[in-house]
Amino acid sequence: MDMLSFVPWLITVITLVGAWWWGRHRPPPHTPAPTMPVASSAISQHDARGDDVLDYIDIGVLLVHADGVVVTYNRAAVELLELPPHAHGQSIMSLVRDHQFDEFVRHSITHREYHDMRYTQRNLARTLQISTRPMTHQHLEYTVVLVRDVTHISQLERARRDMVASVSHELRTPLASLKLLSETIITSPPPEIAHRMARRISEEVDTLTRLVNDLHDLSRIEAGRVALQMSPHPPLRLVERAIERIQPQAESHHITLAHTIVNDLPDVLVDAGRVDQILLNLMHNAVKFTPDQGHITIDAHLINIPYEGAYTLTPPADHATGEWVLFCVTDTGVGIAKEHLDRVFERFYKVDQARTRGSGTGLGLAIARHLVEGHGGRIWVISTVGQGTTFAFTLPTA
Ligand code: ATP
Ligand code: MG
How many CB atoms lie within 10 A of CB 98? Predict the structure, then answer.
């Protein structure tokens, strides 16, 4: 949590609460906790006081008396904590109905210090930042409770933590291997062993380089810093070029690689370099997850969306309408179980490392998805375990 960014709005809110409080005629100090109308009621009176302002900010504000009774609260507090709109004068517990929240506020009242906590609303899957600030006015003690919706921030924090954990995990294996290999080479093993190890070192360096390049690429694409250079290209040519590059790899495993694309398909309006990257990622996976002697086929069809054909590869229901070229990369490999299908496009998601013949970092499909969507298209997958997988994606016609 960036506490520095918290300071300016906190000062603003406390100033507003103070102004709001000062603007009111309150009972003398010896009387019990004052009960004030909920701030929103002032709006109906066209009364432009501090409480109007509090109802227009998206931070929940509650003013709690030293005995735990809630004196008043604003509209954002009603929304964030699901409070009844005019139930001031009740205890925190009877309003919020949560022990954790109640204990936190009571603790702050007793200790008269600044306190902050993250509070998860399970029913709404929302994370709130609750802050308490003591306040004294005319010898009466109050606590201002501020409530902010920080769900988005906590999701970003979690994504960043996951990312750091995944990257360090991916770095650890090649680094450990490099350390071991180089230590062995230092002991001057026989030349043929040293040569083999030097080759392994070079391969591990390639793995690390690929990881760093993929991460760099993905972060640039995600940040929208990759400008696509669109121009018309025949689908047949794009696919042939990708096949040429994957062919040696497929041949070394006796996997056949073929396409069924006819020459009269309209051109697609794409960044050819990026389409190469999409096709290579998909075809590389197809080779990696297909046992020797398998087959890989690449198809392309012209489709119109809304799609009315009986083809099994129906595009997602919310696909943009119009004319698209649908590309499919189909293999006869190990397949992907249903429960993983939705997740394979996530960064670092790998179904089962043991099933593959090559290592990977789990970034290829995340990059492919961003690139397809950058062209306005969509990518999806269908698969049957033990039979094979088809990745399908759409690109716009020129
Ligand atoms: P990278 O592409 O970064 O080298 P990767 O190939 O493991 O690593 P992705 O391409 O993102 O990562 O694929 C994610 C996961 O989806 C793979 O690890 C694999 O489990 C599964 N997967 C992808 N393509 C296929 C396929 N054709 N057949 C079976 N499983 C696949
Ligand atoms: Mg891959």
Answer: 15
Contact 66, 111 (CB under 8 A): no
200 membership: H or E segment, kind and range: helix 191-222
Residues 6+ apart with CB under 8 A from 168: none
Q: Which amino acid is at 140?
A: L
Digit-coded pLDDT (tens) for 268-290:
999 999 999 999 999 999 999 99
N-term to C-term CA, the chain: 46
Q: Give the domains, in start order, of the chain with CATH numbers.
A: 3-149 (3.30.450.20), 152-226 (1.10.287.130), 228-398 (3.30.565.10)
Nearest CA among 283, 278, 289, 280 for reference residue 352? 289
Q: Which residues form the pocket of ligand 1, taking CB atoms under 6 Å from any ligand atom?
A: 214, 281, 285-286, 289, 331, 333-334, 336, 344, 349-351, 360-366, 389
pTM for this one? Answer: 0.69
Eight-class DSSP state of 128: E
Which residues lie closer than 8 Å to 28 by C-beta, 6 or more apart?
Answer: none
Q: How far is the CA of 368 from the centre of ligand 2 (A)?
A: 9
